Amino acid sequence: QLLYDSPKARQEVDHHWQASGGPHIVRILDVYENMHHGKRCLLIIMECMEGGELFSRIQERGDQAFTEREAAEIMRDIGTAIQFLHSHNIAHRDVKPENLLYTSKEKDAVLKLTDFGFAKETTQNALQTPCYTPYYVAPEVLGPEKYDKSCDMWSLGVIMYILLCGFPPFYSNTGQAISPGMKRRIRLGQYGFPNPEWSEVSEDAKQLIRLLLKTDPTERLTITQFMNHPWINQSMVVPQTPLHTARVLQEDKDHWDEVKEEMTSALATMRVDYDQVKIKDLKTSNNRLLNKRRKKQAGSSSASQGCNNQ
């Protein structure tokens, strides 16, 4: 990785260097100062992560089922990385699947967290700079409140939700990376567990998501509580229920590529005032992603019935 030399770049390298060697965190092997196009730069040599991104690996499963137990094991690994960071008073602030990479293509590859561009020490100034990626941004980042390690816990909730169904709990109806409607849904904690994708998912998993997606940061689980939750610390007994995740990710592959591009480019500074926060159940009738799949499923069903009637 090449970064033009600046206080922010050196801070990123410093935070990653502190975390390097921690469990499920990409290791920095060396750092060099150099010149690039006449500008001072930092060249960061990291371990090679040949296995690709988390989403891509699940997309490529094909007919091989992705199970709830596998999702629990993945969340345990991500949680282990966050636990290490939080124990060293570092908030990552940009935990998302694109920053979760596998060491190799092998079945026993290790999942690791990378990209410390928005990380901050939580023992110094309160985290008030809203740098984030829209789909994984905590509600307090969109408002004037101070925020801390609980941002990462919110992101864990969103990642866990996607792992269990293949689509995010919050979405934009307009095609924008983060629309006013999407911001409102994040702030009010509006999401649901629609069928059929969620019909077979365990109540333990849904309960854990609810505890992670609390809009009030003080009510959200800490990383210690997360790691002690039965769905995480007893992941070997989580049911091996086949999920819809791989199919949904594959069907929406083009869309997800666009979403990833939007999330990469749409890092912005944004604050929204609001009077009160409350949780509401979300009717999924306006969810563009769900409606697209429902129409496709309905079309396939109608075609099948037509063939049967002939």
From TrEMBL:
It holds the Pfam family Pkinase. InterPro entries: Kinase-like_dom_sf, MAPKAPK_C, Prot_kinase_dom, Ser/Thr_kinase_AS. It comes from the Eukaryota. GO terms for molecular function: ATP binding; protein serine/threonine kinase activity. GO terms for biological process: vascular endothelial growth factor receptor signaling pathway. Its EC number is 2.7.11.1. SMART domains: S_TKc. Residues 298-310 have a biased composition (Polar residues). Keywords: ATP-binding, Kinase, Nucleotide-binding, Phosphoprotein, Serine/threonine-protein kinase, Transferase. Residues 1-232 form the Protein kinase domain. The keyword Nucleotidyltransferase does not apply. It catalyses: L-seryl-[protein] + ATP = O-phospho-L-seryl-[protein] + ADP + H(+); L-threonyl-[protein] + ATP = O-phospho-L-threonyl-[protein] + ADP + H(+). Residues 285-310 are annotated as: Disordered. It is an enzyme of class 2 (transferase). PANTHER family: SERINE/THREONINE-PROTEIN KINASE. Belongs to the protein kinase superfamily. CAMK Ser/Thr protein kinase family. This is non-specific serine/threonine protein kinase. It comes from Chlorocebus sabaeus.
